[in-house]
Specification:
six-stranded antiparallel β-sheet; 414 residues; single chain; 29% strand
Length: 414
């Protein structure tokens, strides 16, 4: 590192040297070509425990450089001497008692007794370096604690609309460096279904006088995956009471939410199977049993229409076998010839999953049929019991579209 400096008026040098002595610094004059020390102040003894006269011995300075810094420091000073460039260097030296001393050297080219010289000062910055090292250690320990707890911190400057994230917060969201991000860019990552809730929480904290707010929502990472984050924020206000900064923590609760979702899905599966079991015990009529199961599927999945369709002898004709609907969304009823479900059956059978289709992606089905019966979104699952079928168990959503989770698909298949 280098920095230009002004040597100042020669008449002020004695005062400057006295000031340096009071600060425990070493003032020296060196040959501008070789860098050999020509003279040094009495502060040299305090710095390394060696008298100032020793500093003038050939090779003294280089021999007392710390081994790990010797090559880089010699090269940096040689470069400065060759370019006749004022410089500032930080490096370690070894004192007479073996202690390591961090030194900051500042040197300028100037005139002394009519000759060009290198005039410099050395200051013991060991305490500063120890403090920096301790601060780095604390920062690393803090980062590790955040990583283990899946917690990060953030600071939102309301004046500049920028957000500074801790290293852990960055890991949760982005691969971009640690530079502050715009609030707008972070807000754009919020899942659409959670955006309104999180926006209200922010408004409550900043516009409506609340000093602390807690909110949770899904946020998109750089890789496209959404993580569930829980934020606790504190609003910092100026003397006039206006909010100027929001500081808080953000915690990754994805694993907990996924586990809770899986638990709810398992309970839902057990409840559905229990309802089917009750239906089985309630009748010995196979047709009534299938009808009851279709009614259970309609209710459990919140659909507007549920049906079981069987492929007729004609390979492209599918006939409604059983159907249950909500009163406001009647269907064609048993015996009604439905549109070609071969694409749904084939793809569902091959994937082992329920297949979504609808007006946006009809999957080869008749759009006119979907429009006729008000279908916005639908799901179909292939059933191919031995000696029977094939069948498609279908669900129609007419009042609004719906997004299924993997647990929903698994439940329908089972």
């Amino acid at each position: 590192m280098s920095r230009h400096a002004d040597a100042g008026p020669s008449g002020s040098r004695s005062e400057a040297e006295a000031l340096c002595a009071a600060l425990g610094a070493v003032v020296w004059i060196a040959d501008p070509v070789t860098g050999a020390v020509l003279s040094g102040s009495d502060g040299a003894y305090a710095l390394l425990g060696l008298p100032a006269g020793d500093w003038q011995r050939p090779g003294f300075w280089a021999s007392h450089l710390h081994p790990d810094d010797r090559d880089t420091t010699l090269a940096a000073r040689r470069e400065a001497l060759d370019a006749r460039r004022d410089h500032v260097l930080d490096y370690r030296m070894v004192a007479a008692d073996g202690a390591v001393v961090w030194v900051r050297e500042a040197a300028v080219f100037t005139e002394h007794d009519g000759a060009s010289v290198l005039r410099g000062v050395m200051i013991d910055v060991s305490r500063e370096r120890r403090a920096e090292r301790a601060l780095r250690r604390l920062s690393q320990e803090f980062d590790e604690a955040q990583r283990l707890a899946r917690v990060g911190t953030f600071a939102h400057d309301l004046g500049t609309a920028t957000v500074s994230l801790s290293s852990r917060s960055h890991e949760l969201l982005t691969d971009v460096g640690l530079a502050p991000l715009s609030f707008a860019s972070l807000a754009a990552r919020i899942h659409p279904d959670d955006a309104a809730t999180m926006r209200r929480a922010i408004d409550d904290a900043t516009a409506h006088g609340r000093d602390q707010v807690e909110v949770e929502g899904r946020v998109r990472r750089d890789d496209g995956r959404h993580v569930h984050l829980r934020a606790v924020a504190h609003v910092i206000r100026n003397d006039a009471g206006a909010p100027v900064r929001v500081f808080g923590t953000v915690q990754d609760v994805t694993e907990q939410r996924v586990a809770e979702s899986a638990s709810r899905a398992h309970v839902r599966l057990l409840e559905t199977l229990d309802a089917v079991n009750v239906a089985i015990q309630g009748t010995t009529d196979p047709q009534a049993l299938v009808g009851d199961v279709i009614a259970i599927v309609l209710e459990r999945f919140g659909a507007d229409r549920a049906f079981l369709a069987r492929r007729d002898q004609n390979p492209v004709a599918w006939v409604i076998f059983y159907e249950r609907t909500r009163p406001e969304w009647p269907g064609g009823g048993p015996g009604y010839v439905i549109c070609d479900l071969d694409p749904v059956f084939s793809e569902s059978l091959a994937s082992g999953r329920a297949l979504q289709y609808g007006l946006d992606d009809a999957r080869g089905l008749s759009v006119a049929f979907l429009q006729q019966y008000g279908v916005v979104a639908a799901y179909g699952a292939a059933l191919s019991p031995a000696g029977h079928g094939p069948y498609v168990l279908g669900l129609h959503y007419c009042h609004e579209s719906t997004a299924w989770s993997a647990n929903d698909e698994r439940l329908l298949q089972e």
